[in-house]
Amino acid sequence: MDISAWMPVLQPVFFVLRGAAAALTVVLILWCWQSVRAGRRREEPVVCLEDRRRGHTLPVLYWENSLGRSKSCDIVLPDTSVSRDHAVLMRRQSGWYVVDTGSKSGTLLNGRKIHKQTKVLPGDVLRFGGTSLVFRRATDTPAGQNRRAPRRVPSQGALLTLATVIQLLLFVQALFADNSFLLLPVLPCALVLLIEWVFFAISKAIGRANFELETIGFLLSGIGIALECGMRERLTEDTPQDLPGPFTLYHWSLDTVYTQILMMAAGLVVYSFLIWFMKDLDRVNKFRTPVAVLGLLLLLLPMVPGIGSSSGGATNWISVGGLSLQPSELTKLCFIFAGAATLDHLQTKRNLIGYVLLMAAIMGVLALERDIGAAAIFFLTFLIIAFLRSGSMRTVVLFVALAAVGVFALLSMFDHVKARFDIWRHVWEQPYDGGFQQTHVLTYAASGGLFGVGIGNGGLGAGTAPLSGQTHITGYNSDLVFGVVIEELGLVLAVAIVAVFAILIFMARGEATRSRSTFYSITANAAAGMLLVQACLNIFGATDVLPLTGVTLPFISAGGTSMMCVWGALAFIKASDERTYLTQRERRRR
Predict the structure, then answer these.
(1) In 3-state terms, what secondary structure has residue 100?
(2) pLDDT (tens digit, 9 = 90+) per residue, 320-343?
(3) Rounded to two decimals, what is the model's pTM?
(4) Torsion of CA 39, 41, 43, 44, to 10 degrees
(5) Using one digit for the tens of pLDDT, what is the confidence trace for 365-412?
(6) Which residues, 6 or more positions from 390, have their beta carbon under 8 angstroms from its beta carbon?
(7) Please, how many CA atoms are within 13 Å of residue 430, restricted to the half-sphere of its CB?
(8) How far apart are CA 288 and CA 299, in angstroms?
(9) Residues with Cβ < 8 Å from 516, sequence gap 6 or more?
(10) Are 162 and 28 in contact (CB under 8 A)?
């Protein structure tokens, strides 16, 4: 239905709606951040260690604590008979445990030397070298008896309600895209909102109190799906008889949209499974090696004749039963899972060397598949995990130097990689050849202004009206989708989306010292870092700040496997939040 005559009246209305959506997005992001901060446990003692000889009490602030002479330990013992990294005191689901980490003099519990992870009870005496400490409850000490009242946390339902309002503002604009009224976006909008609120109800039913991460994930997923509703360029290939009418609710031209919704639902299944699976740290340790092997096998699948396929010069896709998947996305989750280890294993060289060998195998496979984008994400994620595990910048510098050698090798081996580096920072010299994609992204993005031209009205996505010009820009809804975001939704909302990925880093960092295990801390920071790295590669590649790598923008780009796996990455951040599992334990005690 052509509504060109109404557009002079509707355009100011849609401009206000876009401005409201951008402003409310900024408010929601800040509200979620404030909610996370308010819900964190203050750094007060969870238990205490009483040093009777020196007459003072050492507060134990974390669920997993290293003890030793080194200043990098959580609990520093100034005793020359104590090793630099002597032992670990940690909380598990069944209580507190102590484990020796290869100290010279050993660790004694009630006068007996321990040889494995051993349970500790209040009143037990721990001896590290020449230092004896009595294990006490925090409430048995003056500091633990004066705990401050918990801070007020915003309503989690209110957060999701605000996200729903933002999504409705965007989907309403998709109804009137490109001077044409179509009801096609109604069904996708209804499905997205149904999935969100059903998942929220289930989360409340099982006793989860925190819903900030899910709200952020739903917000970004909804923005991406709303944008995709306005990029129905396949309509231009239809015969006039097959075009949808103004009141058509379903049409095959939105198959990509429904795939995104289906994979978002699948991502929530992966998200829920990982949170359940990671609750038991003994199970995590048991399956760390099998998960690493699984990730490597998944990465090898595109090289299997008959199911592997190439795209953009890289052999990184598989086709099974008409469904195309990118195994490297699933391998990212396996890589993060296998790379993190509990603190008692963290200080052994053998464990770190095994992870380096896994990284070398993955990089070798990616080199054979010519997937430079995935290689960059894996390597930068590896640097984050390596630093968190070793605490040594020298280790990171060494790996960066080795990576530089690898980049030069790739440039000499693969023509498509060399071509991307050659055109980098020179796209305007070849606007209709090597720089075709980036120059069009920059041109169209510049026309978006602060609040955009509206969903479906951008030139990069080619519009949505029947028989309106079809785009010839490859990857406009995946690799180059950030250009569509700026052009159609505006710079304010685009910057807000970028800020979300930065805030995920601060969320993960804030929970690093409060999470129940170093495993949670490392996986959360690695997952948040991976999402930020992937977003930066997508945004900076499309805008010619970095070479174009062909990676997706998390949650926003069209790509079913990517949508599913970014929800899996959020599960790692969610698991690091004390409230995720603490709420369930408190619920069982009632």
Answers:
(1) strand
(2) 777 788 899 999 999 999 887 654
(3) 0.87
(4) 140
(5) 888 888 888 888 888 888 888 777 666 666 677 667 766 666 666 655
(6) 352
(7) 14
(8) 17
(9) 63, 64, 91, 281, 578, 581
(10) yes
